[in-house]
Specification:
Helices cover 42% and strands 13% of the residues.
Length: 375
């Protein structure tokens, strides 16, 4: 039964129990899950089980076929544009954490335009505006001004910023934002409390409710996910699956995507608490595609180039490239202001050339802003 809010469904779900069931799945359970349909937690639990790792080739074949069927051989390219690394939160895994010794910088709207010009010259027409969480500096007014300066040049403007109230999201949608990325980081409440030591981000439930506020405000696309490496990856995978499925049914006017980031090294940040292997990540991507065939799957430059190229075949539909993770980094790179170290250092053109050689079509722009009323 679908809860009135995701938190209701989340609190009712025995995710720890589903994780234990996943660990005890057999090869026959995996075969039934591969041949089944629907987005049930039982099916997903089987596909992320240790037993399923022994059938990864079959998972990959099924996931690839579904991706081609639903999305064709098409990869959408986007780039992150960091606005600010100011932050009031203390997050032990993030280079922007309040106690981090990095150089702090917030771009003026004019400087944001200048950074965006670099991305435009590279061919990007989908941009993700990213910032640390500092509500006094990076607020809805500042974000709206940045978006208004960019919206005529980009087909899609997304944001990955501090969670906002519904009215603020409505203001941002009116300014020209069509997509929100908001990651729970981990759905394990105990681990969440352990890695978030202070600031507004420590409020687990406020963050959990964010996609629903954004959907009610009219956001066209919403991306969710967990930062793999904090809690047990199967627990977070099950929670992400539950969340994506709930959003697809409850917020059916909004397109849902899932990102699969792994923890990366950063200034002053902790090492991975629960390491996630390349095989784990590949299995997770396959399971997402099989159980959520219509959801986008997003992969960033956190992963090295050879792994990214391989994961494309398993279900990824959106890729970043040539990314900088510090404000002003496209014009003036500054490693002392980064959020984390990227692993794929190829330029956007190099990534595109590789994808074309693999038989994929690279899409830099797939709709006009005028089609959804933000031109």
């Amino acid at each position: 039964m679908l809860g009135r809010t995701f938190q209701e469904s989340f609190d009712r779900a025995d995710l720890a129990g589903w994780r234990e069931r996943s660990l005890s799945c057999t090869a026959d359970d995996v075969s039934r899950a591969l041949n089944g349909q629907g987005a049930t937690l039982g099916r997903f639990a089987a596909l992320i089980s240790p037993a399923a790792a022994q059938q990864l080739e079959q998972l990959a074949t099924r996931a690839h076929a579904l991706t081609v069927q639903r999305f064709g051989r098409v990869l959408q390219m986007y780039a992150p544009l960091y606005l600010s690394n100011e932050c009031i939160d203390t997050c032990t895994y993030c280079g922007f954490s309040r106690e981090s010794g990095i150089r702090r910088l917030t771009l003026s709207p004019m400087r944001v335009e200048s950074e965006a010009e670099v991305l435009l010259r590279e061919g990007f027409r989908h941009v993700l505006l990213v910032s640390g969480e500092h509500p006094r500096i990076v607020n809805a007014g500042y974000l709206s001004e940045c978006v208004r300066r960019l919206r005529k040049r980009f087909a899609s403007i997304s944001i990955e910023v501090a969670p906002q109230y519904e009215d603020a999201y409505r203001e941002l949608v009116q300014a020209g934002v069509d997509s929100l990325a908001v990651y729970q980081e981990t759905y394990d409440r105990d681990v969440y409390d352990q890695v978030h030591l202070g600031g507004r981000k420590k409020n687990f439930d406020w963050r959990l409710e964010t996609p629903e506020r954004a959907a009610r405000a009219g956001m066209k696309r919403i991306g969710i996910g967990a930062l793999l490496g904090l809690a047990d990856w199967r627990y977070d995978a099950l929670a992400t699956m539950l969340h994506a499925d709930w959003l697809q049914r409850a917020c059916w006017r909004t397109q849902i995507s899932v990102s699969v980031p792994r923890l990366r090294t950063a200034e002053g940040a902790i090492e991975s608490l629960n390491p996630v292997t390349d095989v784990d990540l590949a299995q997770y991507v396959c399971a997402l595609r099989i159980c959520l065939p219509d959801a986008g799957i997003v992969l960033s430059t956190r992963e090295r180039e050879s792994l990214r190229d391989g994961l494309v075949k398993l279900g990824v539909t959106q890729l970043s490239a040539g990314s900088r993770t510090e404000p002003g980094g496209y014009e003036e790179p500054d490693h002392e202001a980064e959020q984390f170290d990227v692993a794929d250092h190829r330029s956007s053109r190099e990534v595109a050339a590789t994808l074309v050689a693999m038989g994929y079509e690279v899409v830099w722009k797939d709709w006009e802003a005028s089609l959804h009323g933000t031109a």
